Amino acid sequence: MTASELVAVAAIKEGKYALAFPEFGAERRGAPVRAYTRITAETTLIPRTPVLEPDIVVVLDSGLLGLPDVLQGIKKGGLLLVNTKAKPSELRARLGCSSDIRVATVDATGIALETIRAPIVNTAILGALVRASNVVSLENIIEAVKERFPGRVGEVNVEAVKKAYEKVEVG
Amino acid sequence: MAQQLLKKKLALSSNYAVAYAVKALDVDVIAAYPITPQTHVVEKLSEFAANGEIDAEMIHVESEHSALSAVIGASAAGARVFTATASQGLALMHEVLHIASGMRLPIVMSIATRALSAPISIWNDYSDVMNARDTGWIIYFTSSAQETHDTVIQAYRVAENPKVHLPVMVAYDGYIMSHTVEPVEVVEKDEALRYAPKKVTWPKLDPDQPITMGTITSPDWYYEFKYQQVVAMREALRAAEEADKEYGRMFGRSYGVVEGFMLEDADVALITMGAFANTAKVAAVEARKRGVKAGVLRLRLYRPFPRDAIIKMLSNVSAVGVVDKAISFGAPVEGPVFNEVAGAFYSSDNKPVLVSFIAGIGQRTVLVEDFVSMFKKLLDYAKVGRGPGESIYVGVRA
Amino acid sequence: MGSLPKWNELPPGGIILEPGSSLRNKTGSWRVIRPVIDQEKCVRCRLCFLYCPDAAILEVDEEYTTKAGRSYTVTYKVNYDYCKGCGICANECPVKAIEMVPEVA
Prior knowledge:
Chain A has helices at 2-13, 88-95, 108-115, 124-133, 138-148, 152-167, and strands spanning 17-23, 34-40, 56-59, 79-83, 102-106, 169-170. With 171 residues, chain A is an alpha/beta fold. Chain A has one domain (2-170): Pyruvate-ferredoxin oxidoreductase, PFOR, domain III (Pyruvate-ferredoxin Oxidoreductase, domain 3, 3-Layer(aba) Sandwich). With 398 residues, chain B is of the alpha/beta class. Helix content of chain B is 40%, strand content 17%. The termini of chain B are far apart. By secondary structure, chain C is mostly beta strands. Chain C has one domain: Alpha-Beta Plaits. Chain C is 10% helix and 21% strand. Chain C has helices at residues 47-51, 88-92, and strands at 33-37, 57-60, 64-65, 71-72, 75-78, 98-102. In chain C, the strands form three sheets. Chain C has a two-stranded antiparallel ribbon with strand order 1-6. In chain C, strands 2-5 form a two-stranded antiparallel ribbon. Classes of the chains: A alpha/beta (171), B alpha/beta (398), C mainly beta (105). The interface between B and C is medium-sized, with 23 and 17 residues.
C-alpha cells in the first residue's frame, strides 16, 4: 500500500496524473493486499476500478507467487518484479513465464533488514522498480520517501531505495 | 490561468483532502469519533492541532451521537464547526441530524460512504447517506479528491449563506476515494477565508443578548418552522450554484450542481454519482467506439435535488439509466435515486425510458465493461420504448 | 389561527429572540389547590424553596418573630403567578407547615 502510494506521489511530483488505491482484505500489516497505481500524463479520465491488465506487476512477498493469478492479465512487454533471492532466470523457469515478459528480482527483505533493520520492504522495492521500469525518477522516489518518513527513519529508507536500485537484476 | 497551472499539487487521498480544506477554513471546533473509512480525516486534523497548524478545539467524544451534539452546541455559540463520520456512525447520529437542520445550524460534515451492517461490511456503498436523505441536510457527492477538497470549502459558503442556514454533508466513496491518493491543489487559508469569510451570520447564544434555542413547539407553530426549512432548501440550490460559480472565478475550478458528459447527441445516458462517474465516462467513450451514442450525467448535488437541470440536460436522450449504490428495500423500484428521477420526469412533458440499475453494493467491483453493458441494455429498452419495470442488479450472483 | 404569525414572520428554527419572555406565561391559573405556608410552624429549612420545580417559592428578606418569640431574618412566600399547585412543597416540608387548600370553594 505504502509502495503504491509513494509511486503515485513521485509521479504527481513529475506533473503527471496518478491514482493509487488499495483493495483491502483487512488493514493489518503483513496481511495479503492488492494495491493499484495508475499513472498517465495525457488525461485525468481514469476509471476508478482495479487494474486488470497491468503493465507492471510488483510482488512484495515471494510467498504470494504460489497464488495462481499473479501474472494474470499482464500485458506483452510487461514487467514482473519480485522480492526474492532467486535470479530472474530461476524465477522465469519456476513460473513458466513467457519470453515477452521481462522479469526482475531483488532481495528487498535482505536489504530492508540490513538498512531499516526490519523486514519492511515497501521502500526497498521502489528502488528496484525505478531501475527496472523508469516509471518515475529515482530523485522523486527518494523525495517522496523522505516526505513520508521524516528524519532518521527516512534516511534508512532512502538507503534501502538506493541499495535496491543498485542490486536489482533484470533478465 | 498560467499561474494556476504552476501551483504545486500534493498527493492526497480524499480523506486528507477534506482535512486540508478544514485547515484552510480556520474551523474553531472539531468533534468526531473514529470510524473506518473516515478515520484519517480526524487523524490528520488531530495532527494539525497537535502541531499548532490549526487553532481548533478538538473534542474527542465517546460516540457519533455525541460528536454531532457537541458541534451543534459549538455552532449555536457561533463557532465554525466540523465533524466527519461514515456508515454506522451516521446511523447512530440519525436523530441528531434532524436537530442540526431543524436548529438551522451551518454545520459541515464529511462522509466516507460505507455500507451498513448486518452483515458487517467496512466497504463502500451509499446505504448510509441514502438513509439520511430526509434529514434536512444539504448533500453533495464528489468524484475526486480535488473536488472533495473544493466542495468542503464551498459547503461552508452555502451553509453560512443567510438565505440557507442549513447543515451540509460532503459525501465521497469509502476506500475508492477515501483511501485513493491523487493530485490535489490545496487552497491556502487566506484564499479560503476570502472566499468563505468567518462571520457569524446565524443567530447565536450570547450571554449579553440572550435568546432561546431548542424550544418545544405546539401544533400551532411546528409546521411553519418545517416550511421555513423547505424554503431554505430551495434557496440552497441557488446558493450552491452561486458558490460554485464564485469558486470557479476565484480558483479556476467549478463543477456545476450536475455535470453532463457527452450528452449533447447522446441516445442513451447513465445518471451516476461519486466515484462511478469517471468509470462511466470511460465506458461512454468506449461505447461510442462500438456505435452506441452514450453519455453520462453526474449528480453532484443530491439535496436539494436539481430536478430542472436534470430534465433539461436529458431532454434529447431516449433512454436513461440510474445507477444506484444503495437499495431501498420494498420501494416501488429499489433504486432510491431512480425513484426520485422518475418522480422528476413524471411532471415533465418529455419522458425518456427509465431503467434502474443497482451496482457496487458493499463495494462489489463494477468495471468499465459493466457500464458499457448498461449502455447497451439502455439501447435495447429504447428500441422497445419501455423499461424493465424493476431494478436490474448488476453483478449479483444469480 | 388567523392571528398567528406566518412562516416568514417567525425567527428561524423555532428560536425565541426575546429574553425572559416566558415570564409572560403565567402558569398559576393551572392550579387547583394552592399551598399556604404557616409562618408560625415554618422553621426556615429552605427545602420547599429547593424542591419547587417552578421556582415559585420566594425567599424574601423579611423578618418574622413567632408568638413563642423565635426570630427569623427570612420569610418564604409562594409566587402564585407561577405556582401550579403540584404540592411537592407540602409533601417535603418536615414540619408540615404547608397546607394545600382548594382554590375555589
